[in-house]
Design brief:
Length: 166
């Protein structure tokens, strides 16, 4: 059973709350679709504060590394997570839509029983590359192309086409 961390974000921000810990990759259920392998863990911290306008803010920090699947060769590659996000807390839907007009801030609705680990998972997923792939000359598909393994190419092409449908 995954550990949950439930806070009232407005209280947490006004009281300068702070919490940090580690979470196993295997506990982040929605992240699994993006991962190859889920050994290891991430370090996270969440801090409550007020910004210059005295508005409540949650600061989220996540560090660690994960393995993603390259969309070209379907092999795995390491991806470093190094996130730091300030989330402005809106106290109701009206405030949320007003604050959201400012594209320089990230804003969330402050529900009274906020699941912090789920919020952290959202931030990780949002930070992932839309089309993860190896860097130049690191992708095995470049090597496959240069040798004459004729039987493998249609399979790669078919898998790549399937991936592109999503
Ligand atoms: Zn690749």
């Amino acid at each position: 059973m995954p550990v949950r961390l439930i806070i009232d974000p407005l209280d947490f921000a006004r009281n300068a709350g702070a919490h940090h810990g580690k979470i196993a990759l295997s506990e982040l259920e929605r992240l699994q679709d993006y991962l190859i392998g889920n050994d290891g863990e991430l370090q996270y911290a969440v801090t409550g504060t007020l910004n210059r306008d005295a508005r409540p803010v949650l600061q989220i920090v996540v560090h660690g590394s994960i393995n993603l699947q390259c969309q070209r060769c379907l092999g795995e590659f390491g991806h470093a997570l190094d996130l730091q996000t300030d989330l402005l807390l809106a106290q109701n839907e009206n405030e949320l839509s007003r604050l959201d007009e400012d594209e320089s801030v990230d804003c969330i609705l402050a529900i009274s029983d906020m699941d912090v680990l789920s919020l952290i998972e959202d931030e990780i997923i949002l930070s992932l590359p839309i089309s993860p792939r190896h860097g130049e000359n690191q992708c095995s598909i470049d090597k496959t192309r240069s040798n004459d393994a004729a039987g493998e190419k249609p399979l790669f092409a078919a898998l790549a086409a399937l991936k592109n449908l999503h």
